[in-house]
Design brief:
The protein has 67 residues and is an alpha+beta fold. It has three helices and two strands, in the order αβααβ. The radius of gyration is 14 Å and the shape is elongated.
């Protein structure tokens, strides 16, 4: 995303909300852990789908993904 695209998103959504994707595997619902081959991906995808109309950016906390 370019700076101009970000500014456009901020203006159109009237927010600067950034959602952190700090996925702690121990807090992913058991049904997602049992049903999907990549539960972290599925969990994050669901967060993104649920919030994409309300935020302008996502931030991964790399410490949760290094392992």
């Amino acid at each position: 995303m370019t700076r101009e695209e970000l500014v456009t998103q901020i203006k159109s959504k009237e927010t600067v909300l950034c959602v952190g994707l700090d996925t702690d595997v121990g807090r992913i619902p058991r049904w997602i852990m049992n049903q999907y081959d990549d539960p972290v991906f599925e969990f994050n995808k669901r967060i993104i789908n649920a919030t994409r109309d309300h935020c302008v950016a996502y931030k991964f906390n790399i410490a949760f993904y290094e392992a």
